[in-house]
Amino acid sequence: MKSILRLAVNGKPREDAVAENALLIDYLRDVLGLTGTKQGCDGGECGACTVLVDGKPRLACSTLAHSVVGREIETIEGLSRAGNLSRLQRAFHEHLGSQCGFCTPGMIMAAEALLRSNPHPGRDQIKAALAGNLCRCTGYVKIIESVEAASRAVEQAA
Ligand code: FES
Ligand code: FES
């Protein structure tokens, strides 16, 4: 059975008829077409589906869409502004933090939450923030370096 879901996605208010048992990832991908959020394991283990709910990382594959009624959801599509990459998107591109790219949206959303709460994290804090996000390609070093580069970009902009 469907019921009306009201929430905000990437700053825009939404009102959609959504199945009461629909997962947030399916609502984002299939109803809104926001396919940047990836489905890796579908079991809460890989972090590829990480989005922000009221600024906090959340696994969209393990969240019922109706459980986030009235909340602000942010996906990777919401980070760029007027076609410009965000500091993290740019850093992952420039510092080779992305190879196949499948884990990248989840990594960036988890890192985005970290940098908002701690603009200058240490390496251990970056590792802790990304501990729930798996990558098969990069060996993680380039990912951590990308987050460090983005945090320096924050510093330069401040
Ligand atoms: S798809 Fe959600 S944690 Fe893997
Ligand atoms: S870049 Fe391929 S899984 Fe991380």
Give an overview in words.
The protein is of the alpha+beta class and 158 residues long. The model has no long low-confidence stretch (mean pLDDT 96). 34% of the residues lie in helices and 17% in strands. The radius of gyration is 15 Å and the shape is globular. Strand 1 (2-9) and strand 2 (12-19) form a beta hairpin. A 5-stranded mixed β-sheet has the order 2-1-5-3-4, sandwiched between helices. It folds into 2 domains: 2-78, Beta-grasp domain (Ubiquitin-like (UB roll), Roll); 87-157, DNA polymerase, domain 1, CATH 1.10.150. The protein is built from 5 helices and 5 strands. Residues 98-104, 135-138 line the site of one FE2/S2 (inorganic) cluster. One FE2/S2 (inorganic) cluster (FES) binds at residues 39-42, 44-49, 59, 61.
Give a count of the beta strands, DSSP E runs of length 2 or more.
Answer: 5
- Whole-number average pLDDT? 96
Full CATH superfamily name of the largest domain = Beta-grasp domain
CATH fold label of the largest domain: Ubiquitin-like (UB roll)
Global structural class: alpha+beta
What is the total domain count? 2
Helix content: 25-40%
Distance between the termini: 49 Å
- C-alpha Rg (nearest Å): 15 Å
Query: So what's the CATH class of the largest domain?
Result: Alpha Beta
The largest sheet is:
5 strands, mixed
Proper CATH architecture of the largest domain: Roll
